[in-house]
Fold this sequence. Notes:
The complex is a heterodimer. Chain A has helices at residues 19-22, 26-46, 56-82, and strands spanning 52-53, 90-91, 102-104, 110-112. Chain A is mostly helical. In chain A, strand 3 and strand 4 (110-112) form a beta hairpin. In chain B, a hairpin with a 3-residue loop joins strand 1 and strand 2 (182-183). The longest helix of chain B has 46 residues, at 54-99. The A-B interface holds A 1-6, 40, 42, 44-56, 80-81, 83-85, 87-91 and B 3, 75, 78-79, 106-107, 109-110, 113-114, 116-118, 120-121, 124, 126, 128-135, 230, 234-235, 238-239, 242, 246.
Amino acid sequence: MSALPSYAFGTARFRASDLLRSILILPRNAVLAFLVAYRSVISPLYGDVCRYYPSCSAYAVGAVQQHGALWGAVLSAWRILRCNPWSKGGVDDVRPHAHFRYELTPHGFVVPARKD
Amino acid sequence: MGLDLLLASTPPADSGGGFDLLGIVLWPLKWAVELILVAWHWLLTVVGLPTASGVTWVLAIVGLVIVVRAAVFPLFVKQIKSQRKMMEIAPELKKVQEKYKGKRDQLSREAMSRETMALYKKHGTTPMSSCLPLLVQMPIFFALFSVLRDVGTHAKAGGGGVGMLTPELTKEFYDAKLLGTVSLHETLGDAWSGQNTPAIVLLVILVVLMIGSQFYTQLQIISKNLSPEAKTGQAYQMQKIMLYILPLGFIFSGVFFPLGVVVYWFVSNLWTMGQQFMVIREMPTPGSEAARAREERLARKGKAIAADGKVVPMAVYEAEQQRKLEEVERAKAETPKREQPMSKKRAKKKGSN
């Protein structure tokens, strides 16, 4: 499992008072939960196979955080297609969302930004 | 490959009505699987094997493994060649590793990964096999699984497969038996409820062999073909744990696999084992235990590995080492000796003497 890039986690924490505002980002957090499980249980079985940094699964984490469950999934699928035996690999980061309005937890989940 | 089987063992959803996306995606693959099976079956009957025998159909499945694995073999060779090229960038790689030696925090690891990947890209070589093939194997396996499953339902309904598997061949496949009583579509669960002892024995033996071969291959990789750097990572610990947990999952799924699929998996594992054995023996990861063993083996035969990764006689190797040593010494001798700086005062003093 390759390490998450530093832009894919933060220091924010989920607060119960933000529950209502979190509904909008529930889909991407659900996908992120799946990715966290995949990265800790299934990824290690394959060992290091990805030709890129961040690895395909780490890229998916960043893409879903920044662009949401749907567009993030599309970006991730495109990345996996690019990670084929004929590709050169290298460093390939997720393009951050132009107006990213949320904050990240240490495990990479998305929470609403605090105004203070 | 093993993981795909585990995922495939989840009971397939009933495709009665509605939009069947999986069916549409799998259709061409199923068609190809049927074509290969029927082609092998035809070839085997031409050679003289009985057409309705279980052995013939088992051999056709073995043939399917050969075709599928041979098709992806060029990728394997490509990766091995790339590994050879890795030797050339070893010094630069080592520099990066030295730089981050002992730094275990996330930021250092990120920076190290970035630099390593950039280095691979710069030299157009990488030891990584890439992610897409892992995902591509899964549908192929799904296709085989559903072809074998459909044989049962289609034979009962008197129909055929999606392509070359005609109703007659489907019926024949369905009725084909090993040892007189064991059908290829029989699972361990079926055999148990049918009190079919030969089937139970055969399936248990195959499932044990299948898990054993999988375990052995992984063990060989982990214990012999990892570099010391790879053995320090967190992923290594996880791999070691999974080595023992995964077989338990396969025991569970082995109960639900029809004999045909178990045969496919087992033969496929044998192929992987052979490939891995070859790699560990002839092209081990530099720095691993297997690489040391190979060097010792070569030394006993009076040979050694030159800087470019080729095997050369010991004399040539020693001559190369000697030449390198001389080069270093010559370079040392040629560089002008550094003169001790002298203060103006002392220089004057010396000059006046």
